């Protein structure tokens, strides 16, 4: 007999970063599968793990920064893989880099990154990933020590190793992301990436030539001093996960630590900033 699931359809505005936060919080209370939609996310939990008050501890639902509405219904077991494959699109960057799943055709570009995101992680921020890859394309990473903070699927650390970086650390606080990054590092035959589950407390006494942080604005602001203390002289800090209107507050914080904004890329109102440490 098929399992019975409770399906929640969330409409989220603005969609990001609220959807990412919502998925993380729902994952922590037992929701096991997610499908990102045009207006938000559909989430599933087994009926045996569900109770009427299950959303009471989901803080983002009460945030004044976002408008999140939802409805729910019972459904029979769904073919999660088919749903995920239908919603996940490959990424190509500047005709040089492909980021795809194993079931996508290989476009035979210079760099080919094959990832298989866990279903609870979703497909990620295509805009921010795209821009961070663009920044990395323009950097000489040969033998550079690199940190990918908030690594998600591990895409950016994997690409940095492909460009010659070593050694590399990839860190994420989410267990699904940690496990998924380990899988994707192996899938792409990377030899120099160490993956860790945790937060910025893991960075004590660490030093890097390049730090990549594709995280939401509030976490970036909270941890900025830690990141900058880990950056070698003449190091590079790449930041994304926020909107164009957030640049002034991000820049004001980064400027406290003797870093200067060199350039930024914009894509659909998302931005990715490149800072240099003098």
Structure explained in plain terms:
By secondary structure, the protein is α/β, with parallel strands linked by helices. The protein has two domains: about 80 residues, Alpha-Beta Plaits (2-Layer Sandwich); about 150 residues, Rossmann fold, CATH 3.40.50.150. Helices cover about 25% and strands about 35% of the residues. The protein contains seven helices and 14 strands. It has a seven-stranded mixed β-sheet with strand order 10-9-8-11-12-14-13, sandwiched between helices. Strands 2-3-1-4 form a four-stranded antiparallel β-sheet. Strands 5-6-7 form a three-stranded mixed β-sheet, covered by helices on one side. The longest helix is centred in the middle third of the chain and has 13 residues. The radius of gyration is 19 Å and the shape is globular.
Task: Provide tags for this entry.
278 residues; alpha/beta; Alpha-Beta Plaits; Rossmann fold; 2 domains; seven-stranded mixed beta sheet; four-stranded antiparallel beta sheet; 7 helices; 14 strands
